[in-house]
Amino acid sequence: MSTLLQTIEKETGANPSVAIIWMHGLGADANDFVPMLHELDLRGLPAIRFVFPNADTMPVTINGGYVMRAWYDIVATDLGRQEDEAGLRASQAKVEALIEREKARGIPAERIILAGFSQGCAMTLQTGMRQKEKLAGLMCLSGYVPIADKAAAEHTPASLATPIFMVHGRMDPVIPVARAEQSRDLLKQLGYSVEWHDYPMQHSLCQEEVVHISAWLKKVLA
């Protein structure tokens, strides 16, 4: 197994009993969502360890082969065509190594949340749907289910008990909301419990979304 991904860690208190592994989008890095911790209302929650990993760097086809941080290659603007299955599975293994590290540090699977934006959201679903243990939740921001046919075949019975929070911008020019809605509908058809919100925004975040994230965290970590 390769070395663990580089991470930034922030703990909201001593001896955290919850871990949230939060993955950035294409071309961003581990710092991307650290400032958001100050916006979330975490009152009443146990101490949380936020783990923000850096994806490895790779040439990204759609960006002219420019090398940047990416969880997998993107070959075409039509995200459902020519998906980088090998890259997705390689990054899945690296995310699973971070899950195992949290378990080794004393946080059980059912108290671990996977979260991500855009490509990070795709990795949240790629990894979370294939876990052999229930996780505390999957927080899916402005993304989609990658290699959807394989996900439908490979999702585990244990993962069906993991609650999913899924949000998207109605004017998203990067990942059309229709793609996210297809993913939401697939998840529901498979038997997942999905809380869905959409907002009048593009490929970004908004204040209403932050409020909904805070409320969902309180619900699944109660």
From TrEMBL:
rRNA-binding recorded as keyword: no
Gene3D superfamilies given in the database record: alpha/beta hydrolase (3.40.50.1820)
Family affiliation: Belongs to the AB hydrolase superfamily. AB hydrolase 2 family.
Domain Phospholipase/carboxylesterase/thioesterase: 16-220
The entry's keywords: Hydrolase
Name of the protein in its database record: Carboxylesterase
GO molecular function, one term: hydrolase activity
Alphabetized InterPro entries for the sequence: AB_hydrolase_fold (IPR029058), LYPA1-2/EST-like (IPR050565), PLipase/COase/thioEstase (IPR003140)
